User: Fold this.
Amino acid sequence: MGVFFHILSTGGGSGASRITRYIAERDKDLTRESPGSRRLFSEDQDNLSYHRADRILDPHGGQPDKDDLIHFSVMIEEEEFDKLGAEEKEKQARFREAVREAMKGMAAELNVEELIWVAGIHRNSQNPHTHIVMNKAAIERGTGRPRWISRIPRKLLPHRETQNGKEFIVDGPIGDKFLTAIEKQQALYLYPKEKQPELTAAEKWERLARKYQKEKAERSQVAERKHELSGMPSRDYRQVAASWGEQAHIPNDRLIDFRMALGKRLEFEMRLAFAEVWHDRAVRNGNTYRFEVVDQSTGEERKISDLDVHRRAAARATRTTDRLNRNEAIEADLADHSVTLQQLSEARETKIAALGKDVSSLRGTLTKVEEGLSKRYDMPVERELTPLLSRETLSELQQQAVKLNLAERVSELEKLRIVLAQEHTAPVRTDREAATLAAQVNVARAELMAGDARLENFEASLHLTNYEVAGDRSSLAGIDKQIARRNEDTKLVPQRAARLDLRSLARLNYSAAGREQAALEVEHLAYVRSEIVRQIEERRAPIIADRDLSRDMLDVLENTYLSEQRSRLRNGAMPEPKYESYQVNRLESSAEILRDPRLIKEVTDLERIAFKNDPETNWEGRAVAREIMSGIAVEETKERLQHFLESKKVSSLNLGEHRTGTLRDVEARTLTEYLARVIESREQRDHRHSIRVAAREHHGRLVSDFQKARDYHDAARDLASEAQGHDPEFTDKERINLEIHAERQNHEAQRERYLEMASGKEASHDCEVSISQSR
Assistant:
């Protein structure tokens, strides 16, 4: 085993450095690296954007100077990288931890307190490597004096020396630190209960020297060429076959290389389809993506979205009673956050551009692969050939397709999986892959239920949601009330004057000009209403589409699961589901939408399991945060129920087909109106009945929502009782929702308390949310 060090340039000339952007975006290999910029890391932070990395290197201006930095890379062999974990994510996580430990060792060797650095892992070459950028400024250990590290001494790094005409490798202390750190991480994976066999430093570097002699590489190339000339399967195919099983059959077939090329084309077709989905979703939903920008409300950096800023502005405006003043308050708030919105717009465009670049790159690569196919091979007409893919590549593509809800792609890859497994006399799935499938089914089932609930919630509130038309914000219910009111003003004898009493004479619209003005306003309001209806349809369409995609995905996964289950009847049951962190997050999101106590308990149990393997997983903090957020949900559902009961007659009801009404519309307020029902039309009677039914259904829904929220909160509170004394760990989404809830509070002290809670300034023992259990 060995590591390679390369001291690299920080860029020509002087001025601000762009190294972090280079590390994040340069020369990506989309077959092994996900779309978008690479995420960077530091001593104590993960998932850094290159902007944030620059601010770590230069806390004052966020633009580190090239002359203040040292840039180097550390590379290990692919086979050594594979010893860090079973999956790419696990391997990179252990590689990051090895770098962190080694950089602490480097600081000790340089005799400084600590090093300020950021790094990123590249998978765009034959061997995995990490680029590390460190600031030359440091504090000397023991003295506390400033220290300037102009360069890393050569004697500390691995290097070659020649003595008596012979070249050999000298083990540098820093190189030894990296080797030791990597071996420690490998031991955690390979020997979880044993001690990693020790090698002396000299043995390690001697192995490295022997392994990387030029003669070995040349012999490998010659051997591979002999295989090609003899018509025997290539080394690449032998690796693919071995991935399906050690005893996999390797036929002497000249079409194998062609099938390997077909497999490569299929792989790039899939990756292009994934990249296009990521890009399309960023274009369509980019305003919901959270980016790290300066929030002008606090003056601090945070992850927030364009939609979050608008929702918070609308929440603040709710404390203004007049509708026109509310619109003005929203516009003023958004104007105060113009810098935040501009940064979000730039970040969104940057992400879209990066994803677009990925799409273009993959299209170019796919074109080259197809050109190579047409030039090197003649497509046999006598039979259809099956593409060849390794089990690992097929599984990775299938997992990505599941993650993106691409049911047809998942089904296509499943058919290929079955064919290749039969060809190589191998099981369709390993135990690990079967455990992954079980987790995918559970997540898909929860997401379909959440999709149905999301659509129901949309339908229940679409008439109350504000939509922006010509700079004004109005709801369908609000517009209908305005239209009804102004329609009355167009009549000489309005409905309100049709009661047989002397006051009716005062309610006649005597002014012809007033009636004409009212008619013009009704015409304008009708236009606004049509635009609101159009926006409702626009918002409904993607919710339905996502729900339908979830249903298709669940159908495919359940059928796949049943097939796998049947095939294992003779050899034992299906393994327990194995979840990745993003799947746990999806289950948590579904549990919140569904208010499902069982599901949130499952999420907490999964977080506890993750904590055993990764002590940094803060399941206690998440449990406390969920208790707080579920308590707020109880209060909000209770307030909605109370508001309806207090204003039942004038509350707007959704009658379906974009129609709204209130109980007051059909209320008989005089004896004359009551007697008039004897001669009312069937249409009038049906309308009155539909409003009453809508009122009962709406009331029932509000009661049900309140009860679900209470049960969910009870479960969250029980789970959090085991985490007493821990501070809440809110997600970015929870923080903004907490702020929005705070901004709706009329009581200033209560509002400030929630805002402090969202900012993390209030300790957990002060974060009790008072929940009334009265019905």
Q: What stands out?
A: The two ends are 68 Å apart (CA to CA).
